[in-house]
Design a protein that fits this description.
The complex is a heterodimer. By secondary structure, chain A is α/β, with parallel strands linked by helices. Helices cover 33% and strands 22% of the residues of chain A. A six-stranded mixed sheet of chain A has the order 6-7-8-3-9-10, sandwiched between helices. In chain A, strand 1 and strand 2 form a beta hairpin. In chain A, helix 2 packs across helix 3. Chain A starts with 7 loop residues before the first strand and ends in a 5-residue tail after the last helix. By secondary structure, chain B is an all-alpha fold. Chain B has one domain. Chain B is 79% helix and 0% strand. Chain B has eleven helices and no strands. The longest helix of chain B is centred in the middle third of the chain and has 48 residues. The radius of gyration of chain B is 23 Å and the shape is globular. The two termini of chain B are 34 Å apart. Classes of the chains: A alpha/beta, B mainly alpha. The interface between A and B is medium-sized, with 39 and 28 residues.
Chain lengths: 285, 306
């Protein structure tokens, strides 16, 4: 029964911001509807200022919708109890610099009502998950950008939420840190946690998300499963390894004999600059 | 882990935020001011007031100076600490976006505000307690010195036992006493009102500087509020039956505290007894304004968007 309740339900969300005197209000989000089912990884993509963060903030009750409504697992997101099930990592978070990584997680855990041995175990578990055990006693003020994002992700997960909202989770992070965060998102997906992330790094969204929405100037212009959205229906890709040039010539001859089929391109596939960087730095083989 | 009841959960969250705010301020090294306080305290020992009394009162003025300088320094530190800390905490959380992560947890906005305010109050209370201990210690040593000097003087001049007992009583009245601790507590109460006022201002202000300036202005206005009210009432009573004047002054009194009520601190410096009824009244007054300002802050903060 609970699986049929959407993890996120945004219905006809409109958000206007007041601007200076006598001016028209600025419409940041214009009639956006999003439905994310439990276990899905949903990516909201769009350029800067397109309304992604505002939609997320409305979902967390940080801004009140001008019209429409938002719900988390069926609970009105303006109500505090809806936040029991959600973890949030804002864009470029700055946690309290005077606290260590461990103290930061303890603070957020206590805010969620976790105490005693349960809190201690959960903090240790999360520090291990995000790979910050060695830096757990260091003050946050001395953390790198990637470490901040990882501790941010850990605080978002402290109360074992069923939904995690990530606003530009890899913004300003180097490729290695970015990869680590992406791996963590994969781990969350394996655990059945719903992930709602927004980013303008399209390649990254393509790698981790199974559902995607494209938002532009406050309006949702395209939405669906990643496969549906990016597949080119009338084309087929064939990637061969250690193929003999004679075999390739034979395949090309076969294609040429077909009246309908057309060979668009053949050649060596290229790796991405990111994969090259990670391979050269020993992060992947 | 046994889940907390709704009321306990609120209290627990408020305590978590309060202790965190306290830790945050402590790690900003605010307690360094205690070194300055100690210096002021030592300096007050050497500050000689013009003496108009006879040799039998020699040294008593030093005791008064220690109390006066200490309570003056406590007032200054407590007011600055409560305004600046409160004005700093909230905008800093918004600016650093740490507020997003806190409000994205199941934390009601009222719990957040109450926690921050209590954290500042805890800091001021601990500071006051430490300064009180320092002041009482110095005053105790100095009172013993003055007492032995005066007793020697009385004996050398052949004073009767009754006269000596009376002199001893007069000197001890200027030394450490429960009334003095009551005065320190009154300083804390006044700072608590100021902190809650700064919290209210910071919910709608756009900068820490604005909050600080307005809070200091209201603090100073609070010292003249009663006089202005009395003058206004007597003026109005001449023109009409004074009904509207009474309503206006009541509203002013409701929104703006009358800090003249805290003048009892000056009486304690003079060695007078501070009745516990007065301390009780001041406590109730501080509680009223702290709750009033916190609720007003919440009404604004609940609608605020980030």
């Amino acid at each position: 029964m609970s699986e049929s309740i959407p993890a996120v339900e945004i219905r006809h969300l409109v958000k206007d911001f007041k601007t200076s005197f006598k001016r028209q209000p600025l419409r940041a989000v214009d009639d956006v509807s999003i439905r994310i089912m439990p276990g899905e990884v949903y990516g909201l993509i769009g350029p800067n200022g397109s309304g992604k963060s505002t939609a997320m903030k409305a979902l967390l009750g940080l801004v009140a919708p001008s019209s429409g409504d938002c719900a988390i697992f069926g609970k009105d997101s303006l109500k505090v109890d809806s936040r029991n099930e959600v973890g949030f990592l804002p864009e470029n978070p700055y946690f309290y610099k005077h606290l260590s990584g461990k103290e930061t997680l303890e603070f957020y855990g206590r805010l969620c009502g976790i105490r005693g041995a349960t809190l201690k175990d959960r903090v240790a578990e999360l520090l291990d998950l995000v790979g910050l055990e060695d830096a757990s006693h260091r003050r946050i003020g001395g953390y790198s950008k990637g470490m901040l994002q990882r501790i941010g992700l850990a605080q978002a997960l402290i109360q074992k939420p069923r939904l995690v909202i990530l606003d530009e989770p890899t913004a300003g992070v180097d490729p290695i840190g970015s990869r680590e965060i992406r791996d963590l998102i994969f781990k969350l997906r394996e655990q059945g946690i719903t992930v709602f992330l927004c980013s303008h790094l399209l390649e990254q969204v393509q790698e981790v998300c199974d559902h995607v929405g494209i938002i532009f100037r406050g309006k949702m212009i395209k939405e669906g499963t990643l496969e549906d959205l990016i597949a080119i229906e009338d084309q087929t890709e064939l990637i061969l390894k250690d193929a003999d040039p004679a075999l390739i010539a034979e395949i090309e001859a076969l294609i040429a004999r077909d009246a309908r089929a057309e060979l668009i391109r053949s050649g060596k596939p290229r790796t991405t600059l990111e994969r090259l960087f990670l391979r050269e730095t020993g992060k992947i083989s | 882990m046994k889940p907390l009841s709704a009321h306990t959960a609120h209290a627990y969250r408020i305590a978590v935020i309060a202790f965190h705010a306290f830790t945050q301020l402590v790690r900003m090294k605010v307690f360094y001011f205690l070194a300055f306080f100690a210096l002021i305290l030592i300096a007050s020992n050497f500050f000689n007031l013009p003496q108009h009394e006879g040799p039998e009162a020699a040294g008593v003025d030093v005791l008064r100076a220690i109390k006066s300088w200490s309570l003056g320094a406590m007032t200054l530190f407590s007011v600055v600490l409560s305004i600046v800390s409160t004005a700093l905490l909230l905008p800093k959380d918004v600016e650093d976006r740490t507020l997003y992560t806190i409000l994205a947890k199941p934390v009601p906005r009222l719990d957040y505000l109450a926690g921050k305010l209590l954290g500042v109050m805890l800091l001021v209370f601990v500071s006051m307690a430490m300064m009180d201990v320092l002041m009482t210690g110095i005053l105790h040593i100095r009172t013993d010195m003055v007492l032995s000097d005066q007793m020697a003087f009385a004996q050398a001049n052949g004073w009767t036992a009754g006269e000596m007992e009376s002199l001893k009583k007069d000197i001890l009245a200027q030394g450490p006493s429960a009334s003095l601790h009551g005065a320190v507590f009154a300083v804390f109460l006044r700072a608590s009102i100021i902190a809650s006022l700064a919290l209210l201002i910071s919910t709608f202000s756009t900068s820490t500087l604005f909050t600080t300036i307005i809070a200091f202005l209201i603090y100073f206005i609070g010292h003249f509020q009663a006089d202005a009210r009395a003058a206004f009432l007597s003026q109005e009573a001449g023109m009409s039956d004074g009904f509207f004047a009474k309503i206006i002054t009541l509203l002013v009194a409701l929104v703006m505290p009358d800090f003249q009520l805290f003048n009892v601190i000056d009486a304690v410096i003079e060695g007078q007894f501070l009745p516990w009824v007065i301390v009780g009244k001041l406590t109730l007054m501080a509680l009223f304004y702290a709750v009033f300002y916190t609720i007003a802050s919440w009404l604004i903060f609940a609608k605020k968007e980030f």
